[in-house]
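Sequence in, structure out.
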Amino acid sequence: MTTGRTTGQAGQAGQGPLTGVRVVELAGIGPGPFAGMLLADLGADVVRVDRPGGSALGIAPAHDVTNRNKRSVIVDLKAPDGPARVLDLAARADVLIEGNRPGVAERLGVGPADCHARNPRLVYGRMTGWGQQGPLAHRSGHDVSYIAVTGALGMIGAPDQPPPAPANLLGDFAGGSLYLVVGLLAALHHARVSGVGQVVDAAIVDGTAHLSAMIHGMLAAGGWQDRRAANLLDGGCPYYGTYETADGGYMAVGALEPQFYDEFVDLLGLADFRDARTDWTRWGELREAVAARFKSRTRDEWTALYEGTDACVAPVLSLREAPHHPHLAARGTFTDHGGITQPAPAPRFSETPTAVRTGPARPGADTREVARDWDIPGLVADLVKTSENTLAPQNDFPHQGG
């Protein structure tokens, strides 16, 4: 692992390709904060607007990696001058991110129309599960709910078992955060060319469905069956999947191409199955033989055997093991910052390198700095008021991610 650079303030020059871009993130959970982290990793000055008392959900602020490289101010949106402070920030920003249910931001006085009245160039990003329109737009939900209706969840798992919940990577972060960031950057480019901002409606159901574009093409062409574990890439193929080892570990196999497959079965001691690659009538027999062979040695033994080959075989590592994998360690895929091992910023840039510059933003800790840098003195006055009144967490800002 490498050690992330810690010098510099969020938004300073030389800290990524988005240096100079100002982003306001209204505090939420899940995909919104992750999108803000990605923009912050890329160098944007991301100011997170936290609520007095903090959020009722999530982990301790010191460990919330999705708030790294950001700064935080506290604004009570229910206070008489709360919306005005957010609008002051929006007036000076390039991008705003919010993740409430449709209509909540408008009711609070910080919706798109309110913000665009102050800053017509603003890119207003909306992160929800169901989107801004549709019969379910105002319903609550979480990652597993959204990927379920898109067909993505139905592709995962064994045919005789319920589809497993694949953590919240597929919906929240792949179908949600990444599509929001793509939309924000595209709209930001348009705003800089035209001078006109717009609203980006990023729905997890839309993004997750979009991720399945190739599969829908294969389905239409007759190259994909609409059922689990019956296809080349969903575990139906015996040389594309996972197998248990003698010590209870697992190996992942992706030996699709002929030359990779031949090397895979040869090293496994199953050269007699070279002709079974395209003979699906032998796939059951092949699967049993492969499973039996993998059960004969430990995960580390198989890893050593396949190391340096093109058989497309790799050990299945845990979250704590992954940073120590030789390849990931050599690339610095993970980094240590503030005592937390975490993924390093991605992707990488030749001219504008990124880094973990600061640890997770503590709620309100940067209010004075932001007030100075963004020229919003009212934020400091609000900070004094907030310190005089300890408020409980506000739970009535429903969020649809996570």
